[in-house]
Amino acid sequence: xxxxxxxxxxxxxxxxxxxxxxxxxxxxxxxxxxxxxxxxxxxxxxxxxxxxxxxxxxxxxxxxxxxxxxxxxxxxxxxxxxxxxxxxxxxxxxxxxxxxxxxxxxxxxxxxxxxxxx
Amino acid sequence: xxxxxxxxxxxxxxxxxxxxxxxxxxxxxxxxxxxxxxxxxxxxxxxxxxxxxxxxxxxxxxxxxxxxxxxxxxxxxxxxxxxxxxxxxxxxxxxxxxxxxxxxxxxxxxxxxxxxx
Lengths: 118, 117
Prior knowledge:
The complex is a heterodimer.
Chain A: E1 4-7, E2 10-13, E3 19-25, E4 32-38, E5 44-51, E6 57-58, E7 67-73, E8 76-81, E9 90-97, E10 107-109, E11 113-117
Parallel strand pairs in A: 2-11
Antiparallel strand pairs in A: 1-3, 3-8, 4-5, 4-9, 5-6, 7-8, 9-10, 9-11
Chain B: E1 3-5, E2 10-14, E3 19-21, E4 24-26, E5 33-39, E6 46-52, E7 59-61, E8 64-69, E9 74-79, E10 88-95, H1 97-100, E11 105-107, E12 111-116
Parallel strand pairs in B: 2-12
Antiparallel strand pairs in B: 1-4, 3-9, 5-6, 5-10, 7-8, 8-9, 10-11, 10-12
């Protein structure tokens, strides 16, 4: 149990286009999901906390208008990188927080999306 | 302030050796959770263990074991008889419900483990 999927696994796009990344909890409901960014050989950097049915909470320094987050259901959160530029190229990872059971409040991670902006 | 320190940036061992990955944390909360995750080259973070602050029992799962010591604010991870498949980056994380409200994680910088055949 506790499987999180992420789609697409990789994407290459031209500068100026928008890219949407989906994160789904497949076998549990998640009122809270998280979006991270990871640079090569570095730790995960939290970008925002996505709450079902309400606005996302962004970490300091993360542009809300640049990284649009929607959490429309208990199993789906989306991150849209708007007007992407080469500096947005990175590995984006989502996680879903388990709400119940023995592992309540544990985050389960998706496989990540590698974004390359040309 | 909350902080997680993984002082070992990279460790190389020969297969079948035992290896311990260190994790030291800082928190002012009395209720918190500690986690270990494995990130293999594929990139996906794999959950290994969760420990809450009121449970200091050590845990063993196959070749993996964890030593939680509140007195030294440490949550160390030992792999016994390491294998090449253990090669990965390992992250320690801290979650403080009272402070963050959303149970968000504070990650350490990770330890890259290389197990050589």
